[in-house]
Amino acid sequence: MAVDQQLVTFRLGTEEFGIEIIKVQEIIRIPPITRVPQAPSYIDGVINLRGNVISVVNLRRRFGLPDDTQEENDVNRIVVLKENKHEFGIRVDAVQEVLQLQDMDLEAPPSVSVGIDASFIRGIGKVDDRLLIFLRQENILSTEEGVETV
What we know:
single chain; mainly beta; six-stranded mixed β-sheet; five-stranded mixed β-sheet; 1 helix; 3% helix
């Protein structure tokens, strides 16, 4: 019997991504973000989430995608994740849906670069007539030296 992966899907530009729902703490509107001097370029800054200060990762910059400087709108969100005791947010253009993906509908990442470092990609999911990039959330904050903290 096939094992299902339950994912939260979201958009960055025209691409659709998925992340394991078990790692998602919550999805919030974008509050004021405080910039932090000398933070890595992919960190937008920090937010205060009910008394906890968490870093906000700009996924466009983290993945090396064009950083469209479009105005924020009502569908932009921060997906708050927890990975190995680290809580952080990822800034996305829009959250799409929660869906189940069977292992048989998940293929290994392509061997040819798709414009995103392969260490971020767990696989490519086939959902109806569309494809989504299934992310390795554990690598979003990691660097060669370990986990980034702001």
